[in-house]
Amino acid sequence: MHPAKSVIFFTTASGAGYGMMIWLAVLAALGMLPQETVFGLLVFGLAFALIVGGLLSSTFHLGRPERAWRAMSQWRTSWLSREGLAAIIGFMPLGLFAVVTIFGIADMALGVVFGLVGAAMALLTLYCTAMIYASLRTIPAWHNGWTVAGYLVLGPMNGAVILAFLLAAFGFEEAAGAMRTIAGVMVIIGLTVKTFYWKHLATAPATSTAGSATGLGHLGKVEMTGSPHDQNNYLLREMGFRIARKHARKLGRIAIMLGFWVPLACLLVAGIFLDGGLPAAGIALLFVAVVACQVGITAERWLFFAEAKHAVTLYYGEQAV
């Protein structure tokens, strides 16, 4: 599948934003969320910016972006519609959570309720996003449980790494320590999920072949002697994208190293520096973890689309998907 930049930004940015909201709600429930105005404005502002920016960028891939709102009318059958509705509904409790936390207009116990409801809606939105891809039987690389697990883990993982840096930068030691631990655990879980996802891609048997697609498989091996089209077209551009195996391996190593190993190492060493009275070094390492995580997750998401083969490519020379 063609790795459109707008969709890659949508899934990474909104995932990180929702991940931040989820952990902010968890910290609030544990009584560890700082109620400091400047910090609140920055962290909630960043989370909302990532969510809104990601959601808006997803419309850039549409032929008629101004009609995107119509997709929400198909919530009975469409995961895309359900995702849009879940995102819109989630803005209300998340917004109230932010207002109560930043401005203290109500008891924080009420803010915790808003936060937990908003976190549940954030997880539901991430699940709906994952199901947009996991529900596609015509793309076997996505039609499995590891796709859903990846979206539910990588967004919160990314958000936890960002929050660990911001909390440390503002000097909230207790909350920063807890978030470093959470981020480290999430990075390990994320690495595990992606390892099993890539293992599944490498070992899963083909679900369709040129023979099964044409109904001629019983006669022997089926090979296309010519393309259905003599010029490039939409199907080839969007669903026939190919990436060289050596390039895929290289990007895979980048995704694993920068998306998981570097952030994990930075989180561990930053904790030593912060506990040892070297806050500047610790904060710098946490910033490196944030930057590395963004680059690594972007590479992972690019591969997520580029390595996926649509069944329609069987009619354009692909032997199996």
Explain how this protein is built:
Keywords: Membrane, Oxidoreductase, Transmembrane, Transmembrane helix. Its EC number is 1.8.5.3. GO terms for molecular function: oxidoreductase activity. The model has no long low-confidence stretch (mean pLDDT 87). The protein has helices at residues 5-29, 37-57, 79-103, 108-134, 145-169, 173-203, 210-214, 234-239, 245-275, 279-306. 70% of the residues lie in helices and 0% in strands. The protein is mainly alpha-helical. The longest helix has 31 residues, at 173-203. It has ten helices and no strands.
* Cα-atom radius of gyration: 22 Å
Q: Give unreliable regions as ranges.
A: none
Q: By helix and strand content, what is the structural category?
A: mainly alpha
Strand content: under 5%
How many helices does DSSP assign? 10
Look at the structure and give the mean pLDDT. Answer: 87
In N-to-C order, the SSE pattern is HHHHHHHHHH
Distance between the termini: 12 Å
Query: What kind of oligomer do you see?
Result: single chain
User: What is the 3D shape?
Assistant: globular
- What is the percent of helical residues? 55-70%
- Number-wise, the strands total 0
Taking the sheet with the most strands, its summary is: none
